[in-house]
Amino acid sequence: MAHEVGGVILLFGGTTEGRKAAALLDRLAMPFIYSTKTRVETFTTTHGEFRHGSLDEASLSELVSSRDVRLVIDAAHPFAARLHRSVFEVCERLAVRLIRFDRASVTFPDFDGLHSVADFPEALGLLKRLDPAKLLALTGVQSVDPLRPWWERHEMLLRILPSPASMELVQREGFPEAKLLPMNPDGSDEALEALVREHSVDCLLTKESGESGFFSSKLRVAERCGIPVIVIRRPPAPAFDTVVFSVDELQKCLTEHAALKPLRTGYTTGACAAAATKAAMIALLDGAAPDSVTLTLPSGKVASFGIISYRAGNGRVRCGVRKFAGDDPDVTHGLLIVSEVSLVPDGEPGEVRFLQGEGVGRVTLPGLEIPPGEPAINPVPRRMIRECVAAELRQRGLRYAVDVTISAPGGEAVARKTMNARLGITGGISILGTSGEVVPYSIEAWLASIRQSIAVAAANGCTTLALTSGLRSERHLRALYPDLPELASIHYGNFIGRSLELAGQHGGFKRVIVGVMLAKATKLAQGQADLSSRVVPLDPRWLATLAVDLGYSDELANQLADLHLVRNVTDLISFTSDEPLYLAIASACHRACRQWLSDTPLSFVLFDMEGRSVISD
């Protein structure tokens, strides 16, 4: 189940706790940045990205602000004292929620050979007094430099992880390769004791690293071998408000945080364009641009927009507004939306002409609300812009025609991530919006795009409509029907029921083809209109019941019931066009689709991961 916290989570790792936290965030579908001081071996992640490098308070503040971080998880090593302090100070200053994922402390046993010190200098002083013949340092690769005064003059072995980054660091520091013990410790007393005895070690040096650092094992081995162990105590930690010691505790904090923190709404490109136009008109008519402007949006909300760019010359003025999408994953978030205005003395007073600027698309196909040849500025944003122009002229008793050029630098690249090209909008993004507000994860916004795609397909002569959940099923479907135009292929996401209803409401299609992958098909076959895993979890037991009804063995049915991924059913039953189980699923899906589209001829195509198909007409 996905949990939205807004923005991205910044996770400081490089530890066992960091890996555990990353796995949890992946499982919860929470986007995160995995940050470490040095480059580490990456791991497979669906929702994470990696960064490395030291961060002081200034650079950390910049990272948090630029990436819209609203939750930080500090799972760094207990001895990363400077990092803990920086993270704490920055989160306090920027009012960002901070969770410390720590290692539980271990009670020190009572034996004579245990020596506790505050830091490396104190450890060096104690080593001089103990004067061991051979020290085994279990303090990690970062301790090479602090221990230099000892290993340059005395016998010392250093156990480190065998990662390329660790090996590179010790080589750079000049530590003798012959004294290195690169290995992945398994945490067993036996393995460490064997290492101690094999190398005739007579003293251990370790950090108070907690159980995930096998701290108790190190103390037990030292006592068993009768050798002293020097423990560097953890440095004092900041007064974290929230400290957890397990994945379960962390998950509870994350889910509570997601539930309690409301998602922020944003503003449409249309609202930003209108605000930029209002500022540009004020600057054109008064000679100075305002720092901000206020608009009453179509939704009724009064919104304030900061003006962050201004340029004037040759009777033209340009002002810009930075697009803010709130917590919606809007690809236009952060774009600069610019309006350039100029008076047209010989034009029709009151007329507003819309011109295409950099990064804004042009309509080339019929079926949209804007005719071909016009810049892709939708009706509501056009109305808002006209109202802004008229209001500023009216307040000053002026009557002019006005040219308005809306641009979005970088919009052409961003538009490649949208459906604009398929809708015949070339050269950039569309200036959109009906309410002026962006509601995070709005179903209505998704359905509006489906409705628009259906209208464009019909207006351009498509008589067959193909509905698929995404690109993979679309590729499979178009391989099966090579004459199907791209314009006729529409992604319904998870909303199969509403999409079929929209196709029926529009009318005019001679045939509708629905393509669904196997996992989602098991939900559709049960009559579900929304195939999202958040709404309807996969139910392998339904498959098992269907298999029994079709005469498959009880043993096979039990195997189906135990599947964790429905797509793995093909490992048990080969996917072929005449296999009874897949024929039954396809037939059930076809019947389910009929409840939302009853009059238009319909074909249903069931796909496996390789694109093999079972068709039900």
UniProtKB/TrEMBL annotation:
Gene Ontology process terms (BP): anaerobic cobalamin biosynthetic process; methylation
Sorted UniProt keywords: Cobalamin biosynthesis, Methyltransferase, S-adenosyl-L-methionine, Transferase
Transmembrane domains' residue ranges: none
One Pfam family matching this protein: CbiD
Biological pathway: Cofactor biosynthesis; adenosylcobalamin biosynthesis; cob(II)yrinate a,c-diamide from sirohydrochlorin (anaerobic route): step 6/10
Enzymatic reactions: Co-precorrin-5B + S-adenosyl-L-methionine = Co-precorrin-6A + S-adenosyl-L-homocysteine
Family: Belongs to the CbiD family.
Listed InterPro entries: CbiD (IPR002748), CbiD_sf (IPR036074), Precorrin-6x_reduct (IPR003723)
Keyword Magnesium: no
Lineage of the organism: Bacteria, Pseudomonadati, Chlorobiota, Chlorobiia, Chlorobiales
Record carries keyword S-adenosyl-L-methionine: yes
Designated name of the protein: Cobalt-precorrin-5B C(1)-methyltransferase
Designated gene of the protein: cbiD
GO MF entry, a single one: precorrin-6A reductase activity
Organism: Chlorobaculum parvum (strain DSM 263 / NCIMB 8327) (Chlorobium vibrioforme subsp. thiosulfatophilum)
Matches recorded under PANTHER family: COBALT-PRECORRIN-5B C(1)-METHYLTRANSFERASE
Enzyme Commission (EC) number: 2.1.1.195
Coiled coil regions, renumbered to chain: none
